[in-house]
Write a structure and sequence with these properties.
17 strands; globular; DUF4097 family beta strand repeat-containing protein; mainly beta; Toastrack_DUF4097
C-alpha cells in the first residue's frame, strides 16, 4: 500500500512539474513597428521559419513570438535595423516542445528603401518576396528556401537538405546552393548564375543568362528550358550512366555548364 501511495505522489509531482513548465513557457504575440528608414536589415535567428516581404508605405513591422526560451534584441542604428535571437541560459523548455505553437518571424518592410538584406537562421523555412536590393544574403539549414519576385545585384543563398524554389527574379551575380533536395527555377534573368545541389533534380523554365549559367547536381536529372539559341553557348555537359542532349563545344559567347551523375540532361532552347 505504501508503494502505491508513493507512486501516486511521484506521478502527481511529475504532472505538476510538467504543467509548470508549460505555463512558464507560454508564448505571446509581439510586434515591433518603426517608420524610420531601413536601408539594411540583419536577421540572426535559429530554429525558426522566417518570412520577409517587401511592401508599399513607410513602416517596417516585425511580428514574432515571445516566450521564456524565445527572446529577441531589436535595434535600429542610423539606417540599419537588426533582429537578433538571445541565447538561452539554463534548461531549454522547448526541448520537449512544451508550449510550442509553431512560432515564426514575419517581417514586412518598405521595398523602396531597403538595399541590403542579410538573414541567417537554422532548421526553418526561409522565404523572401517582392524586394529590390543591392545585396541579398540568405542562409538556413535543413529546410526549404523560397525567393520570389526579387531584383538584386548580388545574391548568395544557401540551405541544406531542403528544396530551393526561385521564381520571377533578376540579378547580376547569383549563387544558390542546397543538398539532398531538388531545385525549381522559373523565369530567372541574370548575368551570371550558379545553381548547385546534390541527390536532387534540377527543373528549369525560361532561364535567361546574359553571360554564364552553371547547373550541378548528382544522382538525378537536369531538365528544362533556356532562352536563346544553343549556338550562343560555349557548352560543357557531363553525366554518367545516362544521356545528355547537349553537345559540347567552345564557340558561343556565353558559358553553359551542366554536370550531374546517374541522371539524364535534357535542355531545350526557346525564343
Amino acid at each position: 500500500m505504501k508503494k502505491i501511495i508513493i507512486g501516486l505522489i511521484l506521478v502527481g509531482a511529475a504532472l505538476v512539474s510538467m504543467s509548470s513548465m508549460i505555463f512558464h513557457n507560454r508564448m505571446s504575440n509581439e510586434t515591433f513597428t518603426t517608420s524610420k528608414t531601413v536601408k539594411e536589415l540583419i536577421v540572426d535567428d535559429r530554429n525558426m521559419p522566417i518570412d520577409i516581404v517587401g511592401v508599399s508605405g513607410n513602416k517596417t513591422r516585425i511580428n514574432y513570438k515571445k516566450s521564456r526560451d524565445i527572446k529577441y534584441n531589436i535595434k535600429q542604428t542610423s539606417n540599419t535595423l537588426s533582429l537578433e535571437r538571445k541565447r538561452s541560459i539554463g534548461f531549454n523548455f522547448n526541448f520537449f516542445n512544451f508550449g510550442k505553437r509553431d512560432p515564426k518571424v514575419t517581417i514586412e518592410i518598405p521595398k523602396s528603401k531597403l538595399k541590403d538584406l542579410q538573414v541567417e537562421t537554422s532548421n526553418g523555412k526561409l522565404s523572401t518576396e517582392n524586394l529590390t536590393l543591392d545585396n541579398l544574403d540568405l542562409e538556413t539549414t535543413n529546410s526549404k528556401m523560397i525567393i520570389n519576385n526579387v531584383d538584386a545585384h548580388s545574391i548568395d543563398a544557401e540551405t541544406s537538405n531542403g528544396k530551393v524554389e526561385l521564381s520571377k527574379m533578376t540579378f547580376d551575380d547569383g549563387s544558390f546552393e542546397t543538398s539532398n533536395s531538388k531545385m525549381d527555377l522559373q523565369n530567372l534573368e541574370f548575368s551570371e548564375g550558379e545553381f548547385h545541389t546534390s541527390n536532387g533534380k534540377i527543373n528549369l523554365m525560361n532561364l535567361n543568362p546574359a553571360k554564364s549559367l552553371s547547373l550541378e547536381t548528382s544522382n538525378s536529372e537536369v531538365h528544362g528550358t533556356i532562352k536563346g539559341k544553343e549556338e550562343d553557348f560555349s557548352t560543357v555537359s557531363k553525366t554518367s550512366n545516362a544521356t545528355s542532349n547537349l553537345t559540347n563545344h567552345e564557340d558561343g559567347s556565353k558559358e553553359l555548364e551542366v554536370i550531374t551523375s546517374n541522371g539524364d540532361i535534357e535542355i531545350a532552347f526557346v525564343r
